[in-house]
Write a structure and sequence with these properties.
The chain is of the alpha+beta class. It has twelve helices and 20 strands. It folds into two domains: 225 residues, Thrombin, subunit H (Beta Barrel); 211 residues, no CATH class.
């Protein structure tokens, strides 16, 4: 039963304040990325741990023993600009804690998947389990744990938060509802499904005074993925949310492309399920991208992707879409697709700003071979007269200029980028599209050849 699994996955988060008893802050949930990872993680709410130090995580091990682990202050990361004060709804109210696997004695092994609430139907049954203060028992940590059955109601996509109503079986008194729920904050919210364990989000707080209409608010699990990506930690995969069929990109394809050869290729591949390719490291994002955690849901990402697949198929008829490459002068050239909008405060982007983003973000978390061709997609227009592509030599020179600038500004880290590739080729995708003619693809091919030249 899912309730039994959550009994071992749920944790209580405390702060060591130097007194006989720790201060209880809230709840959280274990996450094990894989058996190979050196780390274990705890997902919780930002308001539970923000500005706290000397955190202690108390948990029940697989043999029903009570255990604790101390969390290094440097391993506590809240989402950017979380808001949870006053009478406003919480915003980005999630946090992730990390600890070494070797320090976690007897943790219950259960690798579960992440799922976005966006695809849930109304009235879907869910569950969270945690440690309400009202059940605190000094003599029994285990009996301080309580499950709460809930029902999904509404999702606010832009703010990535959702509401749900508490089942009456929880037994809270209407006049004391808020007080009785204190301590549940940070619980992992799971789909009530005994066949598959899916984390949907994090319990944040109640709505209104005394849990108006039994309604509470939670944060979508996508926000947890964003933290892990931004911190270069193990990244949870959001399951069952990737649509591999690209038929939704066909209309844009016909608007942008006027070439019979590419039309024929598109019609040949349009029924392929590209889900595994989209989930592979062929596709990626680099700061800043507004759909960092779920690029597959971005219209621009998907529109460019269909065009890229057709171009690559034209260049290499036997292409493996999950690990695509093209041949140039007898050499196999690996290809990656990366979306990036550059600095958020600017309305335009440049090739240099994209390469800076690659260096400081994408290449910090992805292993990329030398001489790889990066196809760059962006929602923003390029700065007027800006470069639209570069070869390996130009790429190397831009990296050198970035390092010089960082040294002058005191931002240079000698350890950063030591293992990164020094010679890549980059093409902004619209440069290829603009060079596709009705009768020939020679100009487009020449752009690719130029970008691969040193």
């Amino acid at each position: 039963m899912i309730e039994d699994k959550l009994l071992y996955l749920s944790v209580r988060i405390e702060e060591n304040v130097g007194e006989e008893n720790n201060q209880i802050l809230g709840s959280g949930v274990w996450w094990e990325p894989s058996e190979d990872s050196k780390y274990m993680y705890i997902f919780t709410a930002a308001h539970v741990v923000k500005d706290k130090k000397k955190l202690v995580v108390r948990y029940r091990d697989k043999d029903d023993n009570e255990r604790t682990i101390n969390i290094d202050d440097r391993e506590i990361v809240c989402h950017t600009e979380p808001k949870f004060d006053g009478d406003k709804l919480p915003y980005n109210d999630v946090a992730v804690l990390r600890c070494k696997r070797t320090d976690t004695k007897g943790v219950f092994k259960c690798i579960y998947k992440i799922h976005s609430v966006e695809s849930l139907n109304d009235n879907k049954k869910m569950i969270f389990r945690g440690f309400p203060n009202s059940l605190y028992q000094k003599s029994s940590f285990i009996l301080s744990n309580k499950p709460a059955f809930i029902t999904f109601e509404n999702y606010e996509k832009q703010e990535k938060r959702f509401t749900y109503r508490l089942d009456l079986s929880l037994g809270v008194k209407p006049s004391e509802s808020n007080e009785q729920l204190v301590g549940f904050s940070g619980c992992g919210i799971f789909l009530k499904n005994d066949s598959q364990l899916l984390l949907l989000g994090i319990h944040s707080n109640s709505m209104g005074e005394d849990v108006a209409l039994n309604t509470c608010c939670g944060m979508n699990s996508e926000l947890l993925v964003e933290i892990c990506k931004d911190t270069n930690w193990d990244i949870p995969m959001i399951t069952s949310s990737v649509t591999g069929n690209l038929e939704d990109a066909m209309e844009n394809f016909y608007d942008q492309i006027n070439n019979d050869k590419l039309y024929n290729i598109m019609e040949e591949i349009i029924n392929i399920d590209f889900r595994s390719t989209i989930e592979s490291n062929f596709c990626g994002t680099s700061k800043i991208c507004k759909n960092n955690s779920c690029p597959h849901q971005c219209t621009t990402f998907r529109n460019y992707l269909l065009i890229i697949f057709c171009i690559l198929k034209y260049l290499n008829n036997s292409i493996n879409f999950e690990k695509p490459s093209i041949v140039n002068e007898g050499r196999d050239i690996p290809v990656r697709y990366v979306c990036c909008d550059g600095e958020s405060k600017l309305n335009t982007v440049t090739l240099s700003s994209f390469i800076r983003s690659l260096k400081n973000d994408y290449l910090m978390k992805e292993k990329v071979d030398e001489q790889t061709l990066i196809l760059w997609g962006t929602n923003k227009p390029l700065k007027k007269s800006a470069e639209t592509f570069c070869g390996p030599k130009r790429f190397k020179n831009i990296i050198i200029d970035i390092k010089k600038s960082d040294i002058l500004e005191g931002k240079f880290d000698i350890k950063s980028g030591l293992n990164q590739p020094k010679e890549l080729s980059v093409i902004e995708i619209n440069e290829l599209i603009d060079n596709i003619d009705q009768d020939t693809l020679d100009d487009m091919v020449n752009i690719i050849k130029l970008s691969l030249k040193n």
